[in-house]
Hints:
Layout: H1 2-13, H2 17-24, H3 37-44, H4 46-70, H5 75-87, H6 100-110, H7 112-132, H8 134-137, H9 141-160, H10 163-181
Helix pairs in contact: 1-4, 1-5, 3-4, 4-5, 4-6, 5-6, 5-10, 6-7, 7-9, 9-10
Amino acid sequence: MVLLVAxxxxxxxxxVAGVLYSRxxxxxxxxxxxxxxxxxxxQYGLAAALAVAAADVLKGVVAALLARLLTPDATWVAALFxxxxxxxxxxxxxRGGGGIAPLLGALLVTAPLALAGMLAAGLLLIPLYRATLxxxxxxxxxxxxxxxxxxxxxxxxxxxxxxxxxxxxxxVMAVRALHLLAPRKRAI
Length: 188
């Protein structure tokens, strides 16, 4: 059953909403920008960005709920594989988004307290980072905050969730690290 959950979550994650939206418009957003909510906002506006972000969060929620229904002790599998699918989608030549939105959706179901702590820390860290380190490091604020806050999420998941949430967080941290280090086209 765990393999079925992993496969379903990966395939669900592979439905990258930004790519689907841009292709419906006869384009591929990845030629100009990243396929997440921020890239969609820059290319198509606020309404499209909100729809893309909501769809990507929703697939994380659906994957986690499916796992909770079929294998309650392995919801971490769904969280990990929905993010893997989003970052490396089988339907789009393994070129996807950053995985933040589906991770948020999966954590909303599997570890809501850890998610709340991560969001609070991220909201505090982003303005501080922009004011101090962004010019020197040259990284966007959201990916930096995500990489910095995920260890806090691990600690919170271990404290309020358990070993399964800790494993999911560690796996997602590894996926995010690989995805952040991979060469990408920069936004125009």
